[in-house]
Structures are given as C-alpha cells and as structure tokens.
Amino acid sequence: MISDDYNEVIRTERMTVTSGNIKELASSLTNIRCLIFYDEDKMSKDISDGFGKDLSMICDDVDIVEGDRVFRTIDGAEVEYRVVAKKGCYDFIGDDSHLELKIRAFQS
Predict the structure, then answer these.
(1) From the DSSP assignment, how many helices (H) and strands (E) are in the chain?
(2) Alpha-carbon distance 97 to 95, whole Å?
(3) What value, to the nearest 5°, has the Cα angle with vertex 91 and ends 5 and 1?
(4) Which residues face 90 on adjacent strands?
(5) pLDDT tens digits along 16-73
(6) DSSP 57-98
(7) Pairing between strand 8-18 and 51-59?
(8) What are the structural domain ranges in the chain?
(9) 2-106: what fold?
C-alpha cells in the first residue's frame, strides 16, 4: 500500500472568517501521515509573482483544499507550505485511495 511509504507527519491550518469579517488562520487537521518530495530542485514563479519551490504531497483522502497551510518539522524547526493545487484523489488498488497535492515553499 502507498501509505506504507508515508514518512512524515504534518498539520494544517485553514483561513477562516471571524466576526467582523476578519480573516485568520485556524488549526484544521493534526497528525496527518504523508509523503513529501520535491517536484524540481529549482525555484518557480507563479502568476502573482511569488517565487517558491514546488513539492508533491501524498496522504490519505482527508479534508485539505487549495489555500490551506501545511506545516512540517525539519531539523526541529517548523516549515510552512501553501497548498497550491489539488491534483486529485486516486484509488488504484482496492482500498489504497490517496490524495495528491502540490504544495509550495515560498521564498521570503
């Protein structure tokens, strides 16, 4: 099963609108097992002139949508990514359904 290759644990946050029409990030999911790998080693530029590195993330079929923030820990520090594309949910062999996402680490 593809989930046997999951080697990371992430958490997510989602932008919500609070009273007074104020937008803020709120905790969404925690302890999501996944696999994250670079699509390419180079930086890319998106339409809004943002630069960043794209990565692919594979996890179980959970409630993650474009715009969500993904947080993973690397060498003791939490690193933030943004979900920029939901590639789809796939069910190849029986019960082996999974979600494929493109996430981006933005250059600050």
Answers:
(1) 0, 7
(2) 6
(3) 25
(4) 98
(5) 887 777 888 888 899 999 999 987 665 665 655 666 788 999 998 899 999 999 999 9
(6) EEESS-S--TT-EEEEEETTEEEEEEEEEEEEEEE-STT-EE
(7) unpaired
(8) 2-106
(9) Thrombin, subunit H (2.40.10)
